[in-house]
Amino acid sequence: MKLDNFLNKKIKITQVKSGSKLKDKQNKNLIGLGLRGIGSSAELKVDGSILGMIKKVYHLIKIS
Questions:
Q1: pLDDT at 6
Q2: pLDDT at 47
Q3: Residue 17 phi/psi, 5° resolution?
């Protein structure tokens, strides 16, 4: 899935894997996206900064 297609649109992201054993930067990206644990979801309007954070933790989230 190409993430650039989502610019300026609202998406819903859900955390599907744990962030407990991640590097500190990745964990802070999850918190910055509004995800606090497995199963938590957030609706975000995608811009450049959000897109960068999603790319860092893409393996831990599901986008719908």
A1: 81
A2: 92
A3: -130, 155
Q: Which two tokens stand for residue 50?
A: 């959000």
Residue listed under structure tokens 């990206």: 29
Q: pLDDT tier at 55 (50, 70, 90 boundaries)?
A: very high
The confidence score (pLDDT) of residue 52 equals 93
Torsion of CA 28, 29, 30, 33, to 10 degrees: 120
Beta bridge pairs of residue 60:
none
What's the first-to-final CA gap in the chain, in angstroms? 11
Q: How many CB atoms lie within 10 A of CB 25?
A: 10
Sole residue written with tokens 């606090």: 36
Our measurement of the distance from residue 9's CA atom to the centroid of its chain's CA atoms, rounded to an integer in Å, reads: 14
What is the model's pTM? 0.87
Structure tokens at 4: 């650039």
